[in-house]
Amino acid sequence: MSNAPQPLGAPDVRRDARDKVTGTARYAAEHTPPGCLYAHPVPAGVARGRLTAVRTADALALPGVHTVLTPDNAPRLGEPDDPILAVLQNDRVPHRGWFVALVVADTPEAARAGAAAVHVEYETEPHDVRLTDDHPGLYTPEEANGGHPGERVRGDFDRAYAAAHVQIDATYRMESLHNHPMEPHAATAWWTDGHLTVHDSSQGTVAVRDALADLFAVEADRVTVISEHVGGGFGSKGTPRPQAVLAAMAALHTGRPVKLALPRRQLAAVVGHRAPTVQRVRLGADEDGVLTALAHEVVTHTSTVKEFVEQAAVPARTMYTSPNSTTTHRVTALDVPSPSWMRAPGEASGMYALESAMDELACALGIDPVELRVRNEPATEPDSGRPFSSRNLVACLREGAERFGWAARDPRPAVRREGRWLLGTGVAAATYPVLVSGSSAAVRADPDGTFHVAVNATDIGTGARTVLAQIAAAALAVPADRVSLDLGHTDLPTAPLAGGSSGTASWGWAVHEAATALVARLAAHTGPLPADGLTATADTTEAAGEESPYARHAFGAHFAETAVDATTGEVRVRRLLGVYAAGRILNARTARSQFVGGMVMGIGMALTEGSPLDPVFGDFTARDLASYHVPAHADVPAIEAHWIDEEDPHLNPMGSKGIGEIGIVGTAAALGNAVRHATGARLRELPLTPDKILPYLP
Fold first, then answer.
1. Contact partners, residue 405, CB within 8 Å, separation at least 6
2. What is the dihedral of CA 431, 596, 146, 82, to 10 degrees?
3. Helices (H), 448-501
4. Within a 13 Å sphere around the CA of 14, how many CA atoms are in the beta-carbon half?
5. Dihedral, CA of residue 102, residue 105, residue 110 and residue 115, to nearest 10
6. Residue 215 φ/ψ region, left for φ over 0, alpha for ψ in the -120 to 50 degree band, beta for the rest
7. SS3 sequence, 375-400?
């Protein structure tokens, strides 16, 4: 690196790159304290019922098996805020895959063999795992995720829709989706004189620490949680998960360190999933395509363990002019694993339906889909009436259209063909809210001219180490290679989790403030620095918690070209381009990686990923990477990610918005719209697999 300070936004190389490719970076399951034992869980084999017996004799007879924890002998836990953490506490089986026992042994192999030898008997009960849009158990929740009202009504939708020049009424369906991070959920735990230490694969150590303290009835300062390196999470590691609890229980029971890495086939049942949705979208517009009525009605499921409502109708409250609007969530509690956060929750699901319906409206009116979106730009946020801090969706659409060559597009469907391939193009918009939480950080100046940042951030593969060093260096006016960091440890200054595209904005704000305070302290200091350096701290809890008078969102536009095999129905992505307005980009290299990663995930959402629930067995049909098909390299073309220069003074000192999730938001709709343009057939159920497309091909 240069000895001169680099501007914030420079494409600095990831600081942990060498550690990761050489294996120096150690993950939760790669810490092996002396005397460490290994655990393997036993999942329930029925969809609903109660345990009548857990027979462990055969497992305990196997070489190397130390113990089997069951609801009869497992340590008693306190009442958790999240009921999924109440593992091995009673005989209830709320869904297939719920953990009913834990085998602890000398080796992973012995633990796995022991788990296979545990015999479980059940009293089964009738179960229901089928989501339908007329399910008798449907109700309207008071709130959807994120504190959003379950229902919002503005104006008179029914009157405006009936009077509209053109009407669109379409229902879109999505199957369950799974996060599947490369690193499975894992934890290594041990107790020392009543102090619990846990290496956990988590997006936020503070929440895990607090949950464990409550569960095991110890003070929070008697629990240390470390998540120094995390191999992806996509939301599934955003809240405490059972592996940390089980490892701590087993360590308490045996008096020895215990390591637990959940098998991938068990993840779908215990670490959350994107809930399936049935979404009805109705649009009414005048002859110029300006919306006069908008209704977005979402049906989804939750579990009987806890309520989790995918907030899929919320984006429709932000996106377009809609003086008469109804946005509603309805949910039913089924005998299914608890759904949870998955990358861009609400936006990814809801924008697929909304942006598909906007394309249908454009087709019905004969208006270019880009132009239709431009005509429906709101002056203020429709739901709140607040002005936008910045809104450059139109700029994204215009630049994306120019880069993609949209103007040369023949709008007629099913007219472009190359041999057996039917070609089509599509566009969709994207949005994601600006979220920020209070954080604290400390920055120290050392006598040797280097600086050290301490903040309990979690780098889940996004490049947080690199960008936080750049933020500190920019505030200190020094090269970034003079800044080192500590993160991912509860002994560090408290910071929020990595989630909701809020991590960098939250941690970076505190780091910037601490570095700025250190500059002032250094300016007032005379003489050499003390041996232990000079430190400044910051806590942004109050500032970040203030309600903004502005509606703050990132926006983007996705353009896609697909080729559909006229014989097999196979869909291939030829081109995918995204343009984003996300405030100040803090590192061009890591930002492009995040945008592209989201777009690749959107390809999977559109074309390959899906896991319906088997109504007979009450189980997900695709539970591993052999049956749950994420895009491989051969599925992904050379993807382009661009952004516009956006200055927004109403965000944080860096002027940045979150970028980790917006890349996925519009991708599926853009691809679906391109498939419609290629084939002339409008398919409304994801994923767009060949079996769904074949009946509509010429």
1. none
2. 170
3. 464-476
4. 19
5. -10
6. alpha
7. HCCCCCCCCCCCCECCCCHHHHHHHH
Tens-digit pLDDT profile for residues 318-366? 999 999 999 999 999 999 999 999 999 999 999 999 999 999 999 999 9
572: enclosing H helix or E strand: strand 571-581
The rounded distance, in Å, linking the Cα atoms of 566 and 564 is 6
Structure tokens at 499: 């989630």
Judge residue 188's burial from the number of C-beta atoms within 10 Å of its C-beta, 0-12 exposed, 13-18 middle, 19 or more buried. Answer: buried
* Residue 1: predicted pLDDT: 44
Q: Which two tokens stand for residue 654?
A: 């860096």
Mapping DSSP to helix (H, G, I), strand (E, B) and coil, where does residue 190 land?
strand
Q: Say if residue 651 is exposed, middle or buried (CB neighbours under 10 Å; 0-12, 13-18, 19+).
A: buried
Helix H or strand E segment including 20: helix 17-22
The Cα 506–Cα 618 span in angstroms is 40
Asked if residues 659 and 341 have their Cβ atoms less than 8 Å apart, the reply is no
| Catalytic entry in 360, 570, 661, 685 | 661
Report d(CA 516, CA 477) in Å as an integer.
10
Question: Taken in order 336, 341, 347, 348, is the CA torsion positive or negative?
Answer: negative
Residue 661 a catalytic site member: yes
Alpha carbon distances (Å) from 651 to 386, 396, 591, 655: 15, 20, 18, 6
Q: Determine how many CB atoms are found less than 10 A away from the CB of residue 642.
A: 16
Residue 27 has pLDDT above 60, yes or no: yes
The neighbour count for residue 178, using CB atoms within 10 Å, is 25
Smallest CA-to-CA distance from 369 within 237, 198, 558, 620 is with 558
Cβ proximity of 167 and 283 under 8 Å: yes
Q: How far apart are CA 475 and CA 469, in angstroms?
A: 10
Question: Average pLDDT of 183-196?
Answer: 98
Residue by residue, DSSP assigns 61-125 as TSTTEEEEE-TTTSPP-PPPSSGGG-TTSSSEE-STT-EEEEEEESSHHHHHHHHHH-EEEEEE-
Residue among 86, 93, 46, 40 nearest 64 (CA)? 40
**Beta strand pairing call for 148-149 and 143-144:** antiparallel
Give the burial string for 288-298 (b: 16+ CB within 10 Å, else e): ebebbbbbbbb
d(CA 363, CA 367): 7
Pairing of strands 534-539, 440-445: antiparallel
**Cα separation, 119 vs 88, whole angstroms:** 16
Residues 488, 228: Cα–Cα separation, whole Å: 4
Q: Report d(CA 483, CA 480) in Å as an integer.
A: 5
Q: H or E stretch including 210?
A: helix 205-215
Rounded to 10 deg, the angle between the 347-365 and 588-607 helix axes is: 70
pLDDT at 528 over 50: yes
Q: Cis peptide before 496, with omega less than 30 degrees from 0?
A: no
